[in-house]
Amino acid sequence: MTSAPTHAKGLEGVIAGETEICNVEQSALIYRGYEIADLAENASFEEVAYLLLVGKKPTPEELKVFQSELVSERKIPELVQSFLKQSGDLVNNHAAVPMDILRTAVSMLGHLDAQCQDNSADANLHKSKRLLAKIPTIIGHMQNNIDGRDFVAPTEDLSHSANLLYMMTGEKPSPEAEKVMDVSLVLYAEHDYNASTFTSRVIAGTLSDMHGAVTGAIAALKGPLHGGANEAAMDMLAEIRKDIGPENDNAKILDWMHQAFEDKRKLMGFGHRVYKNGDHRAPILHALGRKAAEARGPEFVRLFELGEEVQRIMETEKNIYPNVDFPCGMTYFTMGIPVPQYTPIFVASRITGWCAHIMEQHANNRLIRPRAAYVGPETRNWNG
């Protein structure tokens, strides 16, 4: 009998392929050669989306054309709108959550896209732009229906980030809110072979279509160990606030954390499979979120102070650092975004990385088919 092949649980540390899109290192996160802090400081989300999808930094004229294309594709088909008119009932009265609604709506878009079955580079790029443009509209219509309001039509005079906020509320966001959202989308846009991206590449590797691969990626992102961590982190902070009372009593926070440690509870928004010394996206978003909290008032500042104490305890006692989902939860809450929409907003950003990887997989494809180490019973006879 041959010995079982070696393996890594969860594929940890395994190099599963090559990519030109993103490099994740302990000290840097790089999109096509550009470091994330540089992009967060100096590039708009539309520029980053173009970089990821097209493969290069846009010229001013290329950016203008790209923005115009996105604006022209914001409206969604009537059939998808009809489905979204049921989203409030599905979420409020049944078992669905917003990520389920978004997953189904994206799948429906595939039925209505004339290029759905075409995996050529040109068709894939056009589909990528359409998905990028339409996902904020899906999120907005969904939230409008959940809240019992009429749909807000997409507008032509707002950026991708501002339009995303506008679609949910019907109010044009302040420049400060637009900037916070824009940077958060830049930070979430791409992260090499994470669970959802790898899912999309496995699906694309069968030569399935882009809408199918993105639908699978959304399903993967929904999980609380991946994209859903930003929602789970905010839920955890809300639980701590409820348990300790309205004031941030550090002794009570410490007691709560020690009980969580004793119960071996998984504290969401902390730790990362790759970043062992801290996710360098986290302080970028934390700084922006705290500034927004200071502008909104003491209640929101107290939330960040609570988060900072939780973070201090985790770092001091467990040597575990926050990932970007931890400040994201606090930041989006400060902006008034409903918690169940945090992960759909993640999709509004990561769609760029997914589509870039799907295009890369289709362009240089090999079926992704790993082996498994069998640990079941030895061979035996059915009749005896």
Write the topology of this structure.
Layout: E1 22-24, E2 29-31, E3 34-35, H1 36-42, H2 45-54, H3 60-72, H4 78-84, H5 87-93, H6 98-112, H7 121-146, H8 160-169, H9 175-188, H10 195-205, H11 210-221, H12 229-244, H13 250-262, H14 282-296, H15 298-318, H16 325-334, H17 342-363
Antiparallel strand pairs: 1-2, 2-3
Tally of helical runs: 17
CATH architecture of the largest domain: Orthogonal Bundle
CATH class of the largest domain: Mainly Alpha
Oligomer: single chain
Order of helices and strands: EEEHHHHHHHHHHHHHHHHH
Largest sheet: 3 strands, antiparallel
Across the major sheet, the strand order is 1-2-3
SSE class: mainly alpha
Q: The CATH topology of the largest domain, please?
A: Citrate Synthase, domain 1
Number of strands: 3
* Gap from first CA to last CA: 22 Å
CATH evolutionary superfamily of the largest domain: Citrate Synthase, domain 1
The Rg value, from CA coordinates, equals 22 Å
Give the helix proportion (percent range): 55-70%
Shape descriptor: globular
Beta percentage is under 5%
Low-confidence stretches: none
**Mean of residue pLDDT?**
94
User: How many structurally independent domains?
Assistant: 2
